[in-house]
Amino acid sequence: MRYDIDNGISLCRKCHVDFHTQFGFKKNDGEQILEYLSEVSADPWYAGETFD
Questions:
Q1: Rounded to whole angstroms, how far apart are CA atoms 40 and 36?
Q2: Mean pLDDT across the chain, nearest whole number?
Q3: How far apart are CA 11 and CA 47, in angstroms?
Q4: 32, 40, 45, 52: which is deepest, by most CB within 10 A?
């Protein structure tokens, strides 16, 4: 399913690194991403980056 276009989510670089720091790189699943996103911010459009 790695190359299935319907099986993905876009994260900014910082969030991508943070996610894998917390959950590792193998056998990641939807429950992990939902847990991560619930911890990051109440605003789903906040990507952890600033626009200076």
A1: 6
A2: 80
A3: 7
A4: 40
Q: Does pTM top 0.70 for this prediction?
A: no
Of 42, 43, 50, whose CA–CA distance to 14 is shortest? 50
Rg, C-alpha atoms of the chain: 12
Asked if 18 and 33 count as a contact pair (C-beta separation under 8 A), the reply is no
Q: Which two tokens stand for residue 47?
A: 């990507």
What is the rounded CA–CA span in Å between residue 4 and residue 19? 20
Find the DSSP H helices in the chain. 13-23, 30-40
Structure tokens at 29: 């699943």
Average pLDDT over residues 10-24: 90
